Amino acid sequence: MNIGKHIEEILRKQGRSAAWLATQIPCERTNVYNIFKRKSLDVRLLMRISVILEYDFFKELSEEAFPKHK
User: Within 10 Å of residue 32's Cβ, how many Cβ atoms?
Assistant: First the structure.
């Protein structure tokens, strides 16, 4: 999973902008665009973004790492 692209997808699905996320983190809008390009993130930053977007990115990453075998 490219976590940065996934964050961008969720943000867009929620109808929010990079500028909005930048005010929430808080950081510069250009930093948010850099986050969108990253394949990995610091755990604390990912936790903050998860809380802000009310979306569990950790669950998806865990499911990718440990897929359920049926």
Answer: 23
> What is the per-residue pLDDT across 13-68, written as a single tens digit (0 to 9) for each?
999 999 999 999 999 999 999 999 999 999 999 999 999 999 999 999 999 999 88
Cβ contact 58:50 at 8 Å: yes
CB 46 within 8 A of CB 58: yes
Contact (Cβ atoms closer than 8 angstroms) between residue 22 and residue 31:
yes
Phi and psi at residue 28, in whole multiples of 5°?
Answer: -75, 150
- pTM for this entry: 0.91
Q: How many residues does the chain have?
A: 70
Asked if residues 10 and 16 have their Cβ atoms less than 8 Å apart, the reply is no
